[in-house]
Amino acid sequence: MPGSASIAIIDDDQSVRESIQDLLETEGVRSHLYASAEDFLSQEGYREVDCILADVRMPGISGIEMLVLLKGVEGCPPVLMMTSYTTAQMKVAALRNGASAFLGKPLDSGELIACIRNVIG
């Protein structure tokens, strides 16, 4: 992955955000952490990153709702969705609304890295 690559990690669980950040740092990827979709959207975090990794279920705006909002943002980076509550219906909703990938938790580190490589090169 390019050394300058950066990713936004949006999850209401701080330990999840930090563990993903630790993993990505070993791959040379910088991370920007957000505790909610509202924080990410209000700070226009999508302008700073090459890729977005967001949880589906969060208080307030859900990951799917955020994905729908981001579809209207010109030049929005690819969005990867993750969840502990994997259902076929949720996966279809995420992919239909423009997610580049749908990952189950706990995340498979190899799968996550491969997905990021696929979307940012």
From TrEMBL:
The modification 4-aspartylphosphate is found at residue 55. Pfam families: Response_reg (PF00072). The keyword Hydrolase does not apply. Signal peptide: none annotated. Keywords: Phosphoprotein. Residues 6-120 form the Response regulatory domain. It comes from the Bacteria. PANTHER family: CHEMOTAXIS TWO-COMPONENT RESPONSE REGULATOR (PTHR44591:SF25), STRESS RESPONSE REGULATOR PROTEIN 1 (PTHR44591). This is Response regulator. It comes from Rhizobium mayense.
